[in-house]
Amino acid sequence: MNSAKDWFQCAKKEGFAIGAFNIDSLDIFKAVMVAAQNKKSPVMLEFSPGEVKYFGLRNVVDMVVNAREEYKIPILLNLDHGRPIELCMEAIEQPGFDNIHFDGSDSEFEENVKETKKVVEAAHKKGLLVEGEIDKVSGSSEKHDEDVNVEQLKDSYTKPEKAFKFVQSTGVDILAPVFGNIHGTFPTQPNLDIGLLTRIAQAVPETFLSLHGGSGIPASQVKEAINLGKIVKVNVNTELRVAYRDALSEELGETPNEYKVYEIADDVILAVASVVEGKIDIFGSAGKA
Questions:
Q1: Which residues participate in Zn(2+) 1 binding (predicted)?
Q2: Among 35, 66, 125, 185, which one has the highest count of C-beta atoms within 10 angstroms of its own C-beta?
């Protein structure tokens, strides 16, 4: 199997999901690679617009292309929450991407459909998959101190009939529904509405489903989303950032006179890799490479 479509079809059939891990530093990149190699797992590396700006689009592609050769495991590349549409088009024209997530959830439904369809048409010509988003996934990829207003969150839940209309109108390959998931971690994490997810899956049976906001969700609920809701891709960002910061702070405290960054980085990378390995186990993708 080489393509993202092949891997997602396999995941759907065999009941596992591929972890899509955001990369916002070279240390996190190395941590994800080490973990995936240790677990013999396929993995998706994804970059948000901010992360693309930090690395540079061509550097992102070169880094991933080199990693595919070095680590000898299946590595998929995704533009995460792609916006504006021009960035999506630039990524489509840059060889190396497998998946483009166009996030039009801030727009009205019809405008979202119109723009998503443009991305789909361009991406499909290059053999790439497109992920679409109807309803905005709330929160941000940070550690939050406040609780979630669950009733307010429910207003953004994706309706199955709306999902069907969006998929039929755009031709997206992957849909990112909202069913209790939220970006970031919170003192009390909302429960996933697995019943709603199951109805969405039934409404769009030929479309792959992704779970955004994969940090902080209890393992049992993630497994339910994969087994019952047919989720094939789980996005994880916040838990990696938290592990990175915590480990880095500890290292700096323990070695105040160490100025060689690569000496400090080793334990930090291992701390993040441990989180990634745990997620891979939950997602069921270990040994699938």
A1: 81, 183, 212
A2: 35
pLDDT at 283: 98
**Angle separating helix axes 238-254 and 26-39, nearest 10 degrees:** 110
- Full residue range of the structural domain in which residue 121 is found: 4-283
Task: Note the pTM of the prediction, 2 decimals.
Answer: 0.93
Percent of the residues in the chain that have a pLDDT greater than 70, as a whole number:
91
Report whether 237 belongs to an annotated binding site: yes
Question: Is the residue at 253 inside a domain?
Answer: yes
**255 marked ligand binding residue:** no
The total domain count for the chain is 1
- List the single range of 17-21, 84-88, 188-192 with lowest mean pLDDT: 188-192
Angle at 72 between CA 2 and CA 132, to 5 degrees: 40
CB burial of residue 261 (10 Å; 0-12, 13-18, 19+): exposed
Residue 120 lies in a domain: yes
CATH (domain of 140)? 3.20.20.70
Q: Is 135 annotated as a binding residue?
A: no
